[in-house]
Amino acid sequence: MKPRLPLIGEPLAVDLVNTRAITPDGPVDFMGTPAELWEWLTRQADRMTTPTQSERTSLSRADLAAVHEVREHAARALTQIRLGKRPPADALRGLNDAQRAAPGIRKLSWRGGSLVGTVERPGSLGARVAADLAEAAAELLTDPIIEALRECEERNCVMLFIATNPRRRWCSPAICGNRVRVARYYQRHKADA
After folding, report:
1. Residue 50, CB half-sphere, CA atoms under 13 Å: how many?
2. pLDDT tens by residue, 152-188
3. 182 lies in a domain?
4. H or E element at residue 27
5. Does residue 153 fall inside a structural domain?
6. In the chain, how many domains are there?
7. Which domain holds residue 41?
8. How confident is the model at residue 132 (pLDDT cuts 50, 70, 90)?
9. Are 73 and 91 in contact (CB under 8 A)?
10. What InterPro entries does UniProt report for this protein, alphabetically (predicted)?
11. Which of 30, 102, 185, 193 has the fewest CB atoms within 10 Å, measured from its CB?
12. Buried b / exposed e across 150-163, counting CB within 10 Å, b at 16+?
């Protein structure tokens, strides 16, 4: 049985990369099907333009492949940056190409007595979603906060997070942090027995 979707709330590009994980049963892709992509997009609705309900049925394997490609480019770039190395040129080119495939146009409108700008993108659903995610990756890669990007220290976890507190060691103190504390407790009491 596939575990539930990973935690969200990190920068969008980190949440995207975190849709691939290693579990005790092996690698898991939380975005392995168009339906799972839809579920993830729904959970991210407050942070990106979510496809409409009528577009849900039009999510195709090609759309999923476009998002997977951006995820792979983002993961490779973030890994190298995290290690203090230069990101692969093909990963950066892939992120740029995804943005270029559906460039964002800020559409201005008057709502409720104020001017509102929303980004609209042309193209297929997959190209639009991939462009949004590639833009999020580009923003994170160029933001100084990238220096706080960490991988969870729980030995069975590969999730990334932004350590806003320099003492933060786990993607989730309630999940991974608890696992580490329970394991330490067990080891201490096992040694005493």
Report:
1. 15
2. 888 878 889 999 888 888 887 777 877 767 767 677 7
3. no
4. strand 26-29
5. no
6. 1
7. 12-145
8. very high
9. yes
10. ABATE (IPR010852), ABATE_dom_sf (IPR023286), Znf_CGNR (IPR021005)
11. 193
12. bebebeebebbbbe
